[in-house]
Amino acid sequence: MAKKRSRLVRRGPFESTLFRHTGKGAWIFAPIPEDLAPPVTRPWGRTPVIASVDGVTWETSLWRASKSDGALLAVPRSIRGSKQPGDTVTVQFTFDPDDDV
After folding, report:
1. Is the pLDDT of residue 16 over 90?
2. Nearest-5° angle of CA 31, CA 32, CA 35?
3. What residues pair up with 48 in beta bridges, in sequence order?
4. Which tens digits make up the pLDDT trace of 43-81?
5. Which residues neighbour 94 within 8 Å (Cβ) at sequence distance 6 or greater?
6. What CATH number should be reported for the domain whose range is 9-95?
């Protein structure tokens, strides 16, 4: 029997300030506030989402932030355009809270 899908949960829009991770790869992230972070639904602390940054939408995952109860959204150059660390972006995302497989 097929699993019944729940309604998607939408969070945002909200403002987030981009920052560069100092580790390998130097990814640029938009932090997701603790009160908006979804529950972890997959291994390694990730949650599949449909994200939008400044109106550009793509399928990705949010990652649980290691230093808070918030989450992080990696924002590739193809999505953020000329925006750099320190710039503010408008973020929104949707997720399925029952997507635990």
Report:
1. yes
2. 145
3. 61
4. 677 889 999 999 999 999 998 877 776 899 999 999 999
5. 8, 9, 10, 11, 49, 50
6. 2.40.30.100
